[in-house]
Amino acid sequence: MDKKNFGAMGDEELAALAKKDRKAEEFLLNKYKNLAKARSKAYFLVGGDSDDLLQEGMIGLFKAIRDFDPTKESSFYTFAELCIKRQIYTAI
Asked: For the whole model, what pTM was predicted?
């Protein structure tokens, strides 16, 4: 499946597909990287730099893709944002 098809899919559908398809996973990671970046800028890590927090945010995003359950009443965006914030908070 190419990127054009991924763009036409909903995030919830992409998250389900990403569990089996590396390209779908990469598409979601790239799509939500700015969310991880925005959330990481709101925090400060003593002895670290902003790239460290961005990496933690990206780990949270990866976990969101891995753990997202489309049967729950939550959008992927909301779940991803929560996972990103929790990962950053845990790092701090």
From this structure: 0.86
